[in-house]
């Protein structure tokens, strides 16, 4: 993790940041709530994080890079459950009151203190290999759609389908370990439009008339998400002359893709001439976002990403953690898209939608 002194605010946030930006979308409490008593929303979210402990423990137990992994995994489960119980009793303990960033950070801290660096490494590697083998076919199916607007819709559906590979969701982790997930079948089975937030038609109209010079895409999960969802979309932007910067995590967190992993994947997908299946990829850059969580606070990004972003005119935040649970209402000095699938019932209820509903939020720039 980069030291605090090296982290800077994302330069495209509307200023003044203090009065315009709050990272977390769902308020767990209001100023009128008793600071010493957990609110019903806090309790619901603490329970959601507690429900994921068993799937994290299972991954940790089988981490061959850690000595005494089963015993340490048991310690993780106990220690994190105790922390959650403490916060329920006293919301101001452990750096509270809690929000989704704090609950994620505490989980990562406990894992790292016990020597677990990347408990999802094995499944990430397996899913990346599978998705790399499917990439040419997914690109071919998209390229065969001659109508530009229909192709765009197919690419966006691919982002939603890929985004379902999320092992931070207890339910999905169970489905995944039971029978895996078929990317193309998921594309066909998305909930019908209109989605719970659906600005896709506005974006589609803009796509026909506007080309962006530089897009920053905050990526989410490894496997089908980044390789079959985001990369075909990024390739389409490259075809249109847009420079694309993919911003990936500095450190591992759940099954999110990291910067070193993404660099390796792109090098495997490019041919000898540096193309992504017939599209020159010299304008495709990969940046280390400086982040180490499955959610992101945009007041703290790496200097490298800030430098690369300063002249961008499109920001895309993909995935439930970065684009819905945090940053759904973030305002930018340029066009922005928040896109992801709703994989927690609590998020669906907050938005007034269905579980596995889709969010496509498009905002034109609001100036500085």
TrEMBL record:
Q: Which domain of life is it from?
A: Eukaryota
Biological process terms in GO annotation: coenzyme A biosynthetic process
Which residue intervals define the domain Damage-control phosphatase ARMT1-like metal-binding in the entry?
Answer: 50-359
Note the PANTHER family from the entry.
4'-PHOSPHOPANTETHEINE PHOSPHATASE, PANTOTHENATE KINASE
According to UniProt, the name of this protein is Damage-control phosphatase ARMT1-like metal-binding domain-containing protein
Pfam families this protein is in? ARMT1-like_dom
Q: Does the keyword S-adenosyl-L-methionine apply?
A: no
Extract the InterPro entries matched here: ARMT-1-like_metal-bd_sf, ARMT1-like_metal-bd, At2g17340, At2g17340_3_helix_bundle, Type_II_PanK
Cellular component (GO) terms are: cytosol; nucleus
Q: Which GO terms describe its molecular function?
A: ATP binding; hydrolase activity; metal ion binding; pantothenate kinase activity
Keywords in alphabetical order, please: Hydrolase, Manganese, Metal-binding, Nickel
Q: Which cofactor does it need?
A: Mn(2+); Ni(2+)
**Does the entry feature the keyword Manganese, yes or no?**
yes
Organism this protein belongs to: Hibiscus syriacus (Rose of Sharon)
């Amino acid at each position: 993790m980069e030291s605090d002194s090296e982290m800077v605010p994302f330069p495209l946030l509307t200023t003044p940041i203090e009065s315009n930006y709050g990272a977390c979308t769902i308020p767990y409490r209001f100023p009128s709530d008793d600071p010493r008593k957990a609110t019903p929303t806090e309790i619901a979210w603490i329970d959601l994080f507690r429900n994921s402990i068993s799937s994290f423990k299972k991954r940790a137990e089988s981490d061959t890079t850690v000595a005494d992994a089963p015993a340490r995994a048991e310690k993780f489960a106990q220690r994190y459950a105790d922390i959650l119980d403490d916060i329920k009793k006293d919301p101001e303990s452990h750096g509270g009151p809690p929000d989704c960033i704090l609950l994620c950070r505490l989980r990562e801290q406990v894992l790292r203190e016990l020597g677990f660096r990347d408990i999802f490494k094995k499944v990430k590697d397996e899913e990346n290999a599978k998705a790399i083998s499917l990439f040419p076919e997914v690109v071919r199916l998209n390229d065969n759609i001659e109508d530009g607007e229909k192709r765009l819709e197919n690419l966006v559906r691919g982002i939603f389908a890929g985004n379902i590979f999320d092992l931070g969701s207890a339910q999905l982790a169970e489905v995944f370990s039971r029978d895996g997930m078929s990317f193309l079948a998921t594309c066909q089975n998305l909930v019908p439009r209109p989605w719970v937030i659906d600005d896709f038609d506005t974006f589609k109209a803009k796509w026909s008339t506007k080309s962006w010079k530089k897009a920053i895409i905050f990526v989410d999960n490894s496997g089908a998400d980044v390789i079959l969802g985001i990369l075909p979309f990024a390739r389409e932007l490259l075809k249109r002359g847009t420079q694309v910067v993919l911003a990936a995590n500095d450190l591992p967190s759940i099954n999110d893709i990291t910067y070193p992993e993404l660099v390796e994947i792109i090098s495997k997908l490019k041919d000898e001439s540096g193309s992504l299946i017939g599209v020159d990829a010299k304008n495709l850059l990969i940046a280390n976002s400086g982040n180490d969580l499955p959610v992101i606070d945009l007041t703290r990004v790496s200097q490298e990403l800030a430098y690369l972003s300063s002249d961008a005119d499109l920001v895309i935040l993909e995935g439930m953690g970065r684009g819905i649970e945090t940053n759904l209402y973030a305002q930018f000095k340029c066009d922005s898209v928040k896109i992801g699938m709703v994989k927690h019932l609590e998020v669906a209820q907050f938005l007034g939608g269905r579980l596995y509903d889709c969010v496509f939020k498009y905002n034109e720039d609001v100036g500085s």
